[in-house]
TrEMBL record:
It catalyses: tRNA(Phe) + L-phenylalanine + ATP = L-phenylalanyl-tRNA(Phe) + AMP + diphosphate + H(+). The lineage of its organism: Bacteria, Bacillati, Bacillota, Bacilli, Lactobacillales. It comes from Ruoffia halotolerans. This is Phenylalanine--tRNA ligase beta subunit. Residues 410-485 form the B5 domain. Keywords: Aminoacyl-tRNA synthetase, ATP-binding, Cytoplasm, Ligase, Magnesium, Metal-binding, Nucleotide-binding, Protein biosynthesis, RNA-binding, tRNA-binding. The keyword Ribosomal protein does not apply. It comes from the Bacteria. GO terms for cellular component: phenylalanine-tRNA ligase complex.
């Protein structure tokens, strides 16, 4: 929300307050300020000019030579290439010596042999964004009103020396999405009561046209208030300069006096409105209803959209003419030919507005306010005032009366607060008089009794509903900086880490020792990314009021977040990635039940882990590098002997031939492998990207072996090699397990040191060579002892089908 200090000053005395001072105070009382901008603070030597004479440039087919009255005794000659310049216009003139935004200095110059003493400016050249300049001036200079005083400073005339404060409005403070709500907020900060000067009523026309209009609301769940007013005999034209400037400062492009009025009151009251061309309605029966399957509507942006029953529409008869709360239809748009305007003010269901807005990617000022909530107590006043201004700006006549469906409850509501709550919960001691002053500054009313005080909260603050909300209001108006800092008094007890905390610390130590960089990511992600690795048993946990489309649900895996980080780094030419993260995932367990939380470890590898050198070639991360890291991790936890890697092709996001389930004592605790090439391509990652995820909670619960320190053996070890010819489908793990189970107590290590497939090896076979080391810590092993063990091993291996000992 962009707040103009000049506009805000209509309601409060801010003569001695700057935008930066106000931004500081608002930030300290709970509404974050993104920035403070002032277009006109550095503009000078720019005045109102009048084009007295205009002639074509002799050496150009698009330039004109203008003689401009700038309030001095002599006319200024200016060469101008704007296509919309005409004789007699009042224009913005930057005189020699002026410096425009961007650092462009205006000098006396010669253009194609003709002297030019200044510049006739567009709004963009004064610092306005293209997106807020009226389309008729988008490609040319801005034309000032005929009564603009020649020679007056343009900053003063257009009120450009105005601090524009950008508020970052959170969903719980949607009341500040209007000048009305912001005025009350600022009034509370500076202990002022905002004053709102309403437009005086004028004579209303008696006409049967409004009597022709009928309103039908399918269900109060779609809209619990819908009002229609009729303004006749309007002249559609440009709005006055003051209206256009206030809209532009708020980031809205002026269109015409009718549309601008609806946008003006959207900013003033936070109440979205829409204007229909009354004469273009096929039926005078307006229906608020769910769209029928297959209905279509061409919206104001010229796009035809196919509707669904989840969309709420305004229909003329059965023909949709607007997406309720989102955007109007092209067929009933107000144009220069419009004579009679039907003005709509309404309240629509926030969830359906959000659903439609999200589906069609139509995020508008109206939809944003309906989604977060509006001040329903001002529905009627805002509609009346908008109709009055519309009639005033267009020369039209308001038809007496209003057609409406209204089931709103606009009563104030009462909240009880215990008398000792401020001291007990805020840590501040307030007298009865202190509380009355604070509540009065907020514009609320309060009554006291023996044990509690009751606060009467107006409907404009619909975010306040419980005692904690009142205490928050008291705290922020009292001043967070004024609340004393105290330490809690609790019994002292020695602290220590829990088993889980110890495991997480150990995990970080080991993974960082392996050369991995820690990532800390959001637990929130999009539905699309969350569905990449989603539990079939548990639903996604969704936020009711997400702050962005990319952060709407809690993750069920660490996969989406690390993939997003990898994509971010790859896009910035950081191609060699080695990340780990310890964090939580969340699983829905039904309505009104806390989600289940699990602690996870995730690792992502991509690119090179060793660069090319003169003495060796580069080495890329691969399946076995990741597996080795995990084995090192499990060894550090003393559970490596209970870990098993089992091939799987059941995880959709992983490569079906290069993925393994990780099991601990027969229980699955995670997975590892190469990311599926199609998924990697979707995230713009290279094909050699690897990922692992482990459930840390299951590691915490598993009893680890005691750490036993043994002296270095005094007696030598001995070794044997064994070459096997086996089927190429036989897993190394099976052979390793067989050797270990039959190798006796003195077998200390098994190493696969060679694998060969090719010449002299039958098709479908592979040659594997194992190196086994034996050692007795108490005496030297004898050959006969080793041979006996080797016989046990070979006998066991012979039971494996298709195995041949070479």
């Amino acid at each position: 929300m962009l707040i103009s200090l000049e506009w805000l000053s209509d309601f409060l005395d801010l003569s001695d307050i700057t935008g930066l001072e106000l931004a500081e105070r608002m930030s300290r009382t709970g509404i974050e300020v993104e920035s403070v901008e002032n277009i006109g603070k550095d503009l000078n030597n720019i005045v109102v000019g009048e084009v007295v004479e205009l002639a074509p440039h002799q050496d150009s087919d698009h330039l004109n030579v203008a003689q401009v009255n700038v309030g001095s005794s002599d006319l200024s000659q200016i060469v101008c290439g704007a296509p919309n310049i005409k004789q007699g216009q009042k224009v913005i003139v930057a005189l020699p010596g002026a410096v425009l935004p961007g650092g462009m200095e205006i000098l006396e110059s010669t253009l194609r042999g003709v002297d030019s003493n200044g510049m006739i400016c567009s709004l963009q050249e004064l610092g306005f964004s293209d997106s807020v300049v009226a389309k008729e001036y988008a490609k040319g200079i801005f034309i000032l009103p005929e009564d603009a005083p020649v020679g007056e400073d343009i900053v003063s005339y257009m009120k450009l020396d105005d601090d524009i404060i950008e508020l970052d409005i959170t969903p719980n403070r949607a009341d500040a999405l209007s000048m009305y709500g912001t005025a009350y907020e600022v009034g509370a900060i500076y202990n002022q009561k905002p004053q709102f000067n309403l437009i005086e009523e004028r004579d209303f026309a008696k006409d049967s046209k409004l009597g022709q209009v009928q309103i039908e609301v399918e269900s109060p769940e779609l809209s619990n208030a819908y009002q229609i007013r009729l303004i006749e005999d309007v002249e559609v034209k440009a709005s006055p300069l003051w209206v256009q400037l206030r809209l532009m400062k708020a980031g809205i492009r002026p269109v015409n006096n009718i549309v601008d009025t609806t946008n003006y009151f959207l900013l003033l009251y936070g109440q979205p409105m829409h204007a229909f061309d009354f004469d273009q309605l096929e039926s005078k029966t307006l229906k608020v209803k769910s769209a029928a399957e297959g209905d279509s509507l061409t919206t104001l942006d010229g796009v035809e959209r196919t509707l669904e029953p989840t969309d709420t529409v305004i229909a003329s008869g059965d023909q949709p003419i607007a997406l309720a709360g989102v955007m109007g239809g092209l067929d009933t748009e107000v144009t220069n030919n419009t004579k009679n305007v039907l003005l709509e003010t309404a309240v629509f269901d926030s969830q359906r507005v959000r659903s439609t807005s999200k589906k069609f990617a139509l995020r508008s000022e109206s939809s944003a306010r309906f989604e977060k909530g509006i001040n329903v107590s001002k529905l009627n006043e805002s509609g009346e005032q908008a109709a009055l201004l519309m009639a005033q700006l267009s020369g039209g006549q308001i038809v007496d009366g209003v057609k409406e469906f209204n089931q709103l409850n606009t009563d104030n509501f009462q909240i009880s607060v215990h008398n000792n709550s401020p001291e007990k919960k805020l840590g501040i001691t307030l007298t009865k008089e202190d509380i009355i002053k604070i509540i009065d500054r907020l514009g609320f009313e309060v009554e006291f009794n023996e044990e509690e005080f009751i606060v009467d909260v107006p409907a404009r603050r619909w975010d306040i509903s419980i005692e904690a909300d009142i205490l928050e209001e008291i705290a922020r108006i009292y001043g967070y900086d004024n609340i004393p800092t105290t330490l809690p008094t609790t019994p002292s007890q020695p602290g220590r880490l829990t088993q889980k905390q110890q495991l997480i610390r150990k995990t970080r130590t080991v993974t960082e020792g392996l050369g991995l960089n820690q990532a800390i990511t959001y637990v929130l992600t999009s539905k699309e990314h969350a569905s990449l690795l989603k539990s079939d048993e548990h639903s996604l946990v969704e936020l009711e009021l997400p702050m962005s489309e990319e952060r709407t649900v809690l993750r069920q895996s660490m996969f989406p977040a690390l993939m997003e980080i990898a994509q971010y780094n790859q896009a910035r030419q950081n191609k060699d990635l080695a990340f780990y993260e310890t964090g939580r995932v969340f699983f829905g367990q039904g309505t009104h039940v806390q989600p289940k939380e699990e602690e996870r470890l995730a690792i992502l590898l991509s690119g090179e882990y060793k660069g090319s050198q003169w003495y060796e070639s580069k080495k890329n991360y691969d399946f076995y590098v990741l597996k080795g890291m995990l084995e090192t991790y499990f060894e550090s936890l003393r559970i490596a002997s209970q870990i098993e890697f089992k091939s799987t092709s059941e995880i959709d996001v992983m490569h079906p031939g290069r993925t393994a389930i990780i099991s601990l004592a027969g229980e699955d605790i995670g997975f590892m492998g190469q990311i599926h090439p199609l998924v990697a391509e979707e995230f713009d990652l290279n094909q050699g990207t690897f990922f692992a995820e482990i459930e840390l909670d299951k590691l915490v619960a598993y009893p680890t072996a005691d750490l036993v320190q043994t002296p270095i053996a005094k007696y030598p070890s001995t070794s044997r090699d064994l070459a096997l010819l086996v089927d190429d489908t036989l897993l190394h793990h099976e052979l390793n397990s067989t050797i270990a189970e039959n190798g006796g107590q003195y077998l200390v290590s098994i190493e696969l040191f060679d694998r060969y497939v090719g010449e002299n090896i039958p098709e479908g076979k592979q040659s594997l060579a194992y190196h086994m080391t034996f050692q007795n810590p108490n005496e030297t092993l004898k050959d006969e002892d080793i041979e006996k063990v080797m016989t046990n091993i070979t006998d066991a291996l012979k039971d494996i089908e298709g195995l041949e000992i070479r």
